[in-house]
Design goal:
Chain A: Belongs to the binding-protein-dependent transport system permease family. The structure holds 5 protein chains of 5 kinds. By secondary structure, chain B is mainly α. Chain B has one domain: Orthogonal Bundle (MetI-like fold), CATH 1.10.3720.10. Chain B contains 15 helices and no strands. Classes of the chains: A mainly alpha, B mainly alpha, C alpha/beta, D alpha+beta, E alpha/beta. Bound molecules: adenosine-5'-triphosphate (ATP) (2 copies) and magnesium ion (2 copies).
């Protein structure tokens, strides 16, 4: 029984993959993404936190790409390459955790708001709508400014302002699923709220969640860098804080284009990769779009 | 054979007279009323939320006011009294709410002026910047989205979708910095064409030249905002057009002998525009977020810059006032969007 | 073509009532008004009986069916099963739903596309914690005509034809060994050629398991095909009911007559004009009077009941097996 | 037509915005600078020696006990034509003495005043105690006839233009966070400045300001941040101005914060009470490296205390045995001998073995230099077995924790020193500590040393400049050896201007002094510039370029539209299904 | 000359996983003023055939054969000409009326649109004509100002019919005009179509899977199975006396109320509908056929004469003749 279930699951994945594979942009995004994540994960095998130290192994500030450092150095003579490598850990971690936080809140609220009709659902929807219209970056900035900038704060600030769109999406999907006759059938079979939410709604929104979480990570990474740029950061080297550094130390006027362009390109590449994968997943998994 | 009921129905509609949509109109009014009610509720939540959010602040606001200067205890007490901080929390809350309703957001620590005045001063610049950017972004997005969605998979589609996705992935501030470097300062063959700060030259000329001057100042900030924002309009327009193209009524329109562009202009695009219109208003908050960054980079004297400064100082009264105004304006925009959508889409109108 | 069994002549009067609606009213708030979707219905389904509920779109058939299943709460009146009124606490409802099962119109929609046939059929047994799940599922599938059942266990709904899907849905209901099946337009979305197969299955289940069924339909041919008794519903109320042979061959209510007359083969058709009835605006008097062809043609006037038709309310028909009709004009004959 | 054509206009870039144009309230450097250019003071530092010299006060006399000062106000006119009288000055001082709100900016400067009175052009100030720095009074004299109408000082913006001034310039226009326009005061008593107009243009974004200078949108920019300054190296037409500054950067060390009633406050690390630890810290800091890396070499490592070397008179520098130079081994040795042993993780513990030497380093949010400094200090202290963690605080919280509640271990600090160092010395007095209620204060170090107090009192009374200088130097030495604060470097004054626009400029002090960064209006009074060319020119992407670009843009848009329409036509022709 | 002639029309959809032969060699003839019914189960290619008549199929469909409308070949026609033919010569009423109307435009505009597009009327005249058309389909003229969603399903279907009549075409194609409608409304719409066709000499092609409905409205009936016509003939004969086993099964699925034979005896057809991408060889119906013989899987089927003006594609018919 279980092996059969396994083969079927493998087959389902195979089917999914064969469709996903046809979306070239999605596959390219996935490749970039896998590369970025793997690099971030294996970073400690090659370098450690000391690459962010201003006292160790530094070269001439703002020295350009060359033998000494592959893609130039920053204002304190640290290697941009190493900083980017190490900083990707922070950027990706914040992106993932904030997205997961947003997802969890959004999913719970979205499913509950879609499943429970009456005042409870209406209340949840009201709250969601309220959060949705709040200008999220502005709110995140206020939250981070008030709570002070630590990794946890930034994650919470992003997560807490990013969940409503997920909740909206999940709620819409929940409503769509709940309108399907199989929910009625399930109720007629005697199913309770929990059964319907976990057995029917959740599996049906899960693919959408997967797509949406990838998109959410993308926007969380951008938000993190923007917050860092606006002066509230997690105090750890990330691509956003690097860009902030390049701005603070006027890399532009000092001709250190590598300091501005490369971290920015990294953000764009990774965000783009997440976006492409997310869109591809959405197209493959969301029956409405298919 | 007319039945009493059937007879009653057209009678009611005819009584409304041709051109007059009274029943629908009344429906819209009622709808608008509930939406406005909802918006008021949201605004109330904003006020309450803001109060508690800003009351959790660590530190003593009076000392923040002193900004590190040497103040006597008496002076501090006096100030505390003046700000009403010596009252119980609940009374403070009541004061806060009544103050807010009287549009009294307090006095900025930083500018020593009523927050409302400051906001009022800054509003036009933001409206100009964000408004222009929005109009251009929507225009560009809708135009490209339409073209792309009408021929999905075409070279234009792949190119425009790809480009917009790249812009979409770019952090606003980074794009702003690059533009500032490239067009403000000039790089290589690109001359430094555009001013890099503010809304006008100090010695702004009059008349038409002034308009040109302001226009020149707007180029870079508007470009930055448009670059980041237009993608979503493009993508939404594209996908909603794709949705529409699959519909049967499009086939009907073709069957009627309409030209391809007639089908697009008369049927597909107007219908596909509806979701885009809502999105335009829904994402006003996003534009506001962009405005904060862009205004900070280009020294644009708008609300975003005011807010950014308030965050940096930090000037909590100002931050709180600006935050509320930003939120409330977004809520109002959304309400407007709901009502506009309601008026535009007959399907929703009577639902 | 599959064979079908004609059931032996049954003594309808001796059947015990299994499921019953008593003076049932269900209303909804609809755009600021109250839609009285079910407006006083007495209906009984006896053990081993197949009852067809026919009527125009929007007359409240589905609402009645859902209320009978406890999916909708009546605003007044009661649903009684086995003589006791239905309780609405979740425990009692769950117990009730082992006995009474639902089959919906759209088999594709009724199956979760992410569940295999096995999971779909096993859902009921799992909810109710039945032992020997696999055996129950296999048995239900083969009863529903999907043989051998193992071949279907791991298929997904999209890998089945429409008729097979409806069989899976029926198997899902059978897995709980219910005593009553409520089928809401079970074949409406199926191809004509498949339709007979499913109907034959219902008849066979009745013969094999003694299953009672309430079949909701707007197709009189279906009622003729399989039902023992038919109830004609108009605007929330049953206007005529009785044994199929009697009601469909000699209809007494003008509405039933009209319904029968529009069947393609009928000699002369009475096409009712006017809009489908609106449950938010139920006319006074006989609820059908506004569209009644008898009243419009002046026959009611001749019989002297026209005024009554327009103003006098009719009694709610009782839940009896005999033929009966709620019509001022028919009452005269 | 460009309205500025033919005029001499200098545009100064500023990255700080004006907090208020009301001199009673304004505390920011940029605002006080503008007020220095628009208002007269009693005295002004001499452009060569920085000693007090006559400004609105033509001359002055002191009573033998040093308690009564009489200033003779010169015959001058306000820019609206009214005469300047001693009454204006008396009103200004009295207002500050009596109105709480008016104290905001310059309250401490009148703290010692017993009474101020005027008769004709004579202004008499009676002091509570002798005060040597009397001649460095930082209060602009305001026109009584204008300001007495203002009832609510706290909410007065001071935004009335043209302002009524007695300085070299008149403020004529101010757009908040955009720019201020100052025009030459033709009736200025020293004569009209050479410039016709001085503009202050605000940038939120320093990078944009540098771009603006390179492009010629602005002509001068003061107080540059080292990387911005370095970026201008080798740029045509730019004169870089790199001179000793008036600022000292130092670390404030919580060596046992107490209130005025000597009760301990806060949660400072006990190890820092030990002078040996403080000395070890001092040894561990590589000031040379800090200067090189954090300040881009554009600063002087501090071998003295809180008075920067620019003030050659008052500057004290350690020498001989007193002098502490970077020496990690020595620092480790000191700690080792004092019983702070290293644990297994390389971190030292208190001699009693209970607490590790883990210090917080409090800095401000959003200050890249402090962030960078923190990174270096963390590295330095790690070498001597001390862990430093960075604690970023917004400015109000920073002030509270490092100035009142004592919730810090080591904090960044610094002071821009006026020509007379009395003010900065006063920040280390016992009386400046917060009182028992945690109110008041203004201490820079929670320092309270009777010897230092005595020296301070002595210098107050000492009217002989060389002798007073000596006392002030002793005070600095005390701070150096006691180390409640450790000076790290004296940042240079970094400025830049366009040679092609500004033809002459006099710094203060003349020669090697400061331009914008200095106190006083000399540089801006004496500055001369080329007149703006009649048509457009370099100023602000003038309207001509604008027009051309505008037309070009219009052509592009129209052309694009035309092409678009044409293609649409064509598109309609080749149809498809 | 017939109004419409189909000659060996085949339609193939190209999709990612291969080709779908939706219509396979259909030849038909329709005289002016006649009504032809096409029946068949879901997926048998009815709609595809209907859409191919006006070249309305999506780009991934390939049509071969000849479709002649009043002698002109539609498949090789120039675009401009085709646009002129569309609606003015032949109009179409789609399967789902609710989707065939633009939801955000008033129905009056939509009915008038073809008139204006084909230059048959000026706006003023168009308005009058709309009122006229609405009247013809039994709707009050003020309904022109309504939006589609304000109408019931039957009313919308009538609007579609009014629209189809707007340019007074010679041919109307009605693709399942009554499916998803209520019995009573269905009767209304069918009566309307019947009357209109009879009174105006318009040719009609009506598609449905309900044989009884078609038998009622149309003179001729074609039954399709797996993209082919399997039986053709006068409708009452086909309905009551089908020659092809599939037509028989289809006819039996609609019992006559009051007919004791079908009482308690629903009839159906076993087996699964064919997958158009993997059609069985020979007669495509043989896997489900109750009277299949050994020859069926390999037989080259064709429409054989099966009586007076009748043809059927069944080996039994061939043998009988
Ligand atoms: N949840 C609901 N809220 C409001 N009105 C409802 C609801 N459910 C049904 N109605 C209304 O009640 C009436 C009866 O609906 P019901 O679905 O029972 O009709 P039906 O006879 O099953 O029609 P059909 O043949 O179209 O399925 C309709 O007018 C419908 O609009
Ligand atoms: N756009 C398309 N792309 C690929 N295959 C298609 C497309 N449209 C229809 N088909 C296939 O062509 C075959 C015939 O479809 P068609 O819609 O003509 O059937 P139909 O007889 O009208 O069925 P129904 O009664 O369900 O309307 C079906 O197998 C269908 O899956
Ligand atoms: Mg129903
Ligand atoms: Mg079809």
């Amino acid at each position: 029984m279980t092996t059969l279930a396994w083969t079927r699951r493998r087959m389902a994945f195979g089917r999914f993959w064969s469709v996903f594979r046809t979306r070239r942009a999605g596959v390219a995004g996935l490749a970039v993404l896998v590369f970025a994540v793997v690099m971030a994960l294996i970073a400690p095998l090659f370098i450690d936190e000391s690459v962010t130290s201003v006292l160790h192994d530094t070269g001439r500030p703002y020295s350009g790409p060359g033998v000494d450092s592959v893609i130039g150095r920053d204002e304190s003579g640290r290697s941009i390459l190493e900083l980017i490598w190490w900083g990707s850990r922070t950027s990706l971690l914040i992106g993932f955790l904030a997205a997961v936080l947003a997802m969890v809140i959004g999913t719970v609220i979205g499913i509950a708001a879609g499943h429970f009709r009456g005042w409870f659902g209406a209340l949840l929807m009201r709250v969601t709508d309220w959060f949705l219209v709040l200008p999220s970056l502005v709110t995140a900035l206020v939250l981070a400014a008030i709570l002070g900038g630590s990794m946890a704060t930034i994650i919470v600030a992003i997560g807490v302002t990013a969940w409503p769109s997920t909740a909206r999406l999940i709620r819409a999907q929940t409503l769509a699923v709940e309108a399907r006759p199989y929910i009625e059938r399930s109720k007629a079979l005697g199913a309770g709220h929990w059964h319907i939410m976990t057995r029917h709604v959740l599996p049906n929104v899960a693919p959408l969640l997967l797509a949406s979480i990838t998109l959410e990570v993308a926007s969380a990474i951008v938000t993190e860098s923007t917050l860092a740029f606006l002066g509230v950061s997690s105090n750890k080297t990330s691509w956003g804080t690097m860009l902030r550094g390049s701005y603070d130390w006027n890399a532009a006027a000092n001709g250190a284009w590598w300091y501005i362009v490369i971290p920015g390109l990294c953000i764009v590449a990774v965000v783009m990769a997440f976006t492409l994968v997310g869109r591809a997943l959405e197209a493959v998994l969301n029956p409405r779009l298919r | 054979m007319t039945t009493p009921l059937e007879a009653a129905e057209p009678a009611a509609a005819q009584a409304a007279g041709p051109g007059d949509e009274r029943p629908a109109y009344r429906g819209t009014l009622r709808y608008a009323a509930t939406k406005v009610g909802g918006a008021l509720l949201s605004i109330g939540m904003v006020i309450i939320g803001t109060f508690f959010l800003f009351r959790t602040l660590p530190g003593d606001p009076v000392r923040a006011l002193a900004q590190g200067r040497n103040m006597t205890p008496e002076a501090l007490d006096l100030e505390r009294h003046r700000l009403g901080l010596d009252k119980p929390r609940f009374e403070q809350f009541i004061d806060f709410v009544t103050g807010t309703f009287r549009l009294d957001f307090g006095t900025s620590y930083e500018y020593k002026r009523p927050v409302l005045d400051l906001i009022w001063d800054r509003l036009p610049a933001t409206v100009l910047l964000a408004g222009t950017a929005l109009v251009i972004a929507v225009g560009l997005g809708v135009w490209q989205g339409t073209k792309a969605g009408w021929r999905p998979g075409s070279r234009f589609d792949r190119f425009s979708t790809g480009t917009s996705l790249i812009f979409w992935s770019v952090p606003t501030f980074w794009l702003g910095l690059l533009l500032l470097m490239a067009f403000g300062n000039g790089i290589g063959p690109i001359p430094g064409l555009f001013p890099t700060r503010g809304i006008e030259s100090v010695d702004a000329p009059d008349g038409f030249a002034y308009v040109v001057d302001v226009g020149m100042h707007m180029v870079l900030p508007v470009l930055t905002m448009v670059g980041v924002v237009y993608a979503q309009y493009l993508l939404v327009m594209r996908s909603s057009l794709l949705d529409e193209v699959g519909q049967d009524y499009i086939t009907t329109a073709r069957a009627k002998g309409l030209r391809d562009d007639q089908v697009r202009r008369r049927h597909a695009v107007p219908n596909a525009l509806l979701p885009t219109v809502t999105l335009v208003f829904m994402r006003i908050g996003f534009i506001m977020g962009g405005a904060v960054t862009v205004e900070a980079i280009f020294t644009w004297p708008g609300l975003g810059q005011l807010f950014y400064r308030a965050v940096k100082v930090p000037d909590f009264t100002l931050m709180q006032g600006t935050f509320m105004v930003l939120c409330v304006s977004v809520i109002l925009m959304n309400t407007l969007a709901d009502v506009v959508y309601h008026v535009l889409d007959p399907r929703v109108r009577s639902a | 073509m599959t064979e079908t069994q004609a059931p032996a002549e049954q003594e309808q009067a001796t059947r015990t009532t299994l499921l019953e609606a008593r003076d049932l009213h269900v209303s909804f708030a609809s755009r600021g008004r109250r839609a009285r979707a079910v407006d006083g219905v007495n209906l009984a389904v006896g053990a081993g009986e197949i009852v067809a509920l026919v009527g125009e779109s929007g007359c409240g058939k589905t609402t009645l069916a859902r209320t009978l299943l406890g999916l909708e709460r009546p605003s007044s009146g009661s649903v009684r099963y086995g003589g006791a009124p239905l309780a609405y606490d979740s425990r009692a409802l769950r117990a009730y739903r082992r006995e009474v099962q639902l089959v919906l119109q759209d088999p594709t929609g009724s199956l979760n596309p992410r569940h295999t046939v096995y999971e779909a059929v096993a859902e009921g047994p799992r909810i109710h914690g039945l032992p020997d799940e696999e055996k129950v599922v296999a048995e239900a599938l083969s009863r529903a005509g999907l043989r051998p059942p193992e071949r279907f266990f791991h298929r997904y709904p999209h890998e089945l034809s429409g008729g097979q899907r409806q069989r899976v849905v029926i198997a899902g209901a059978l897995a709980l060994s219910p005593r009553v099946l409520i089928a809401d337009e079970p074949v409406a979305s199926l191809d004509a050629s498949v339709r007979g197969e499913i109907l034959a299955l219902l008849l066979r289940l009745r013969a094999d398991l003694g299953l009672s069924a309430l079949v909701v339909t707007h197709d009189l041919g279906l009622a003729w095909n399989i039902a023992d008794r038919v109830a004609v519903m108009y605007l929330g109320r049953i206007v005529e009911s009785g044994p199929v042979e009697q009601v469909l061959t000699a209809p007494r209510h003008p509405y039933t007559q009209a319904l029968l007359s529009v069947l393609p083969e009928s000699p002369e058709r009475v096409v009712l004009t006017g809009e489908p009835p609106d449950p938010t605006r139920i006319p006074g008097g006989c609820r059908f009077h506004a569209r009644c062809q008898v009243l419009a043609s002046g026959r009611a006037e001749e019989a002297g009941v026209a005024a009554k038709c327009r103003s006098e309310l009719l009694e709610v028909l009782p839940a009896v097996p005999e033929a009966q009709t709620a019509c001022h004009y028919a009452a005269l004959q | 037509q460009d309205p500025g054509a033919g005029k001499k206009i200098v545009r100064m870039g500023a990255t700080q915005s004006v907090d208020s144009m009301n001199p009673f309230l304004a505390v920011r450097l940029i605002s006080t600078a503008v007020h220095r250019w628009t208002y007269g003071f009693l005295t002004v530092p001499d452009s060569k020696t920085l000693r007090p010299s006559p400004d609105l006060a033509e001359s002055w006399t002191t009573s033998p006990d040093g308690l009564t000062w009489t200033f003779k106000i010169r015959q001058a006119k306000w820019s609206d034509g009214k005469p300047v009288t001693a009454d204006d000055a008396a009103w200004t001082f009295n207002k500050i003495m009596t109105d709480e709100a008016a104290k905001t900016a310059n309250g401490p400067a009148v703290e010692n005043f017993a009474s101020v009175s005027a008769s004709g052009q004579d202004l008499t100030i009676k002091l509570k105690a002798p005060q040597a720095s009397m001649l460095d009074n930082p209060i602009p004299i305001l026109p009584k006839h204008v300001w007495e109408k203002v009832t609510d000082i706290a909410n007065a913006t001071g935004d009335t233009y043209p302002s009524v001034s007695s300085g070299p310039y008149i403020a004529t226009e101010h757009k908040k966070d955009q720019y201020i326009k100052l025009t030459a005061n033709p009736g200025y008593w020293r004569g009209k400045p050479k410039l016709d107009e001085l503009q202050v243009i605000f940038y939120d974004n320093p990078a944009a300001a540098i771009v603006g200078l390179e492009k010629g949108d602005i002509d001068l920019i003061g107080r540059l941040f080292p990387p911005d300054f370095q970026a201008l190296t080798g740029k045509p037409n730019i004169e870089q101005w790199n001179k000793q500054g008036r600022r000292a950067a130092y670390l404030q060390i919580n060596h046992g914060a107490t209130t005025t009633d000597n009760k301990p406050v806060g949660d400072g690390h006990p190890a820092l009470k030990d002078p040996k630890v403080r000395t070890a810290l001092h040894y561990a800091i590589d000031k040379q490296k800090l200067v090189a890396d954090v300040q881009g070499g554009l600063a002087k490592p501090a071998d003295g205390s809180i008075v920067p070397p620019m003030y050659t008179d008052f500057f004290w520098e350690a020498s001989g045995d007193d002098k502490i130079t970077f020496d990690v081994a020595k620092a480790n040795q000191i700690l080792e001998e004092a019983g702070y042993k290293k644990g297994a993780d390389g971190v030292r513990t208190m001699p009693d073995g209970k607490r590790k030497l883990e210090f917080r380093f409090s800095i401000h949010t959003d200050t890249p230099v402090e962030d960078k400094l923190a990174e270096y200090l963390t590295g330095f202290l790690k070498e001597i077995g001390i862990t430093l963690t960075t604690n970023r605080l917004d400015s109000s919280k920073f002030t509270e924790e490092t100035g009142v509640t004592g919730l810090f271990d080591i904090a960044i600090s610094g002071w821009s020193v006026n020509p007379d160092p009395e003010e900065v010395m006063a920040t280390h007095l016992c009386s400046r500590r917060p009182d028992a209620n945690g109110e008041g204060g203004g201490t820079e170090s929670f320092y309270c040393n009777p010897e230092f107090e005595k020296l301070y009192q002595d210098q107050l009374k000492e009217l002989d400049r060389p002798k007073r200088t000596e006392i002030l130097k002793q005070m600095q030495k005390k701070l150096y050896t006691d180390a409640p604060v450790i000076a790290i470097y004296y940042p240079n004054d970094l400025e830049a201007y366009r040679k092609d626009r500004i033809t002459s400029i006099t710094s203060i002090p003349e020669g090697n002094g400061l331009i914008y960064g200095g106190s006083g209006y000399w540089p801006f009074f004496t500055m001369d510039a080329k007149a703006t060319a009649a048509s457009g020119g370099s100023t602000g992407g003038g309207s001509n370029t604008g027009l051309i670009a505008g037309i070009a843009a219009a052509v592009v848009v129209v052309g694009g539209a035309a092409i678009f329409l044409a293609r649409r036509r064509k598109g309609a022709a080749d149809e498809r299904e | 000359m017939s109004l419409l002639e189909l000659d060996d029309v085949s339609v193939t959809y190209r999709i990612a996983s291969g080709e779908v032969p939706a219509v396979r060699g259909v030849s038909l003839r329709l005289e002016a003023g006649a009504a032809l019914g096409i029946a068949g189960e879901s997926g048998s290619g009815k709609s595809t055939l209907a859409m191919s008549l006006l070249r309305l199929l999506p780009g991934d469909a390939r049509v071969t054969g000849k479709i002649r409308l009043a002698g002109e070949d539609l498949l090789t026609m120039k675009w401009g000409r085709l646009r002129a033919v569309r609606w003015a010569e032949a109009s179409i009423v789609f399967q789902g009326a609710q989707h065939g109307l633009n939801p955000v435009r008033r129905i009056g505009e939509q009915i008038a649109e073809p008139l204006l597009v084909h230059g048959l009327a000026k706006p003023e005249g168009a308005r009058k004509r709309v009122a006229e058309l609405l009247d013809q389909v039994g709707l009050p003229s003020w309904r022109a100002r309504s939006y589609p969603h304000e109408l019931s399903g039957g009313q919308r279907q009538r609007v579609m019919i009014a629209m189809a009549l707007a340019c007074e075409p010679r041919l109307i194609v009605a693709d399942e005009p009554t499916t998803a409608l209520d019995v009573m409304v269905q009767a209304q719409v069918l009566t309307l179509i019947k009357d209109l066709v009879a009174s105006r000499d318009i040719s009609l092609i009506m598609i449905s899977h309900d044989l009884s409905v078609l038998a009622d409205v149309c003179g001729q009936l074609a039954v399709m199975y797996a993209g082919r016509i399997v039986e053709y003939g006068p409708s009452h004969e086909v309905f009551h006396d089908a020659r092809h086993p599939y037509s028989k099964a289809l006819a039996a699925a609609f019992p006559t109320v009051g007919d004791p034979v079908s009482r308690m005896a629903p009839k159906g057809l076993g087996g699964d509908p064919p997958d158009p991408m993997q059609l069985p060889g020979g007669c495509a119906f043989h896997p489900r056929c109750p009277v299949a013989v050994d020859a069926c899987p390999t037989l080259a089927v064709d429409l054989w004469p099966a009586g007076d003006r009748r043809t059927a594609a069944c080996v039994h018919v061939k043998e009988a003749s």
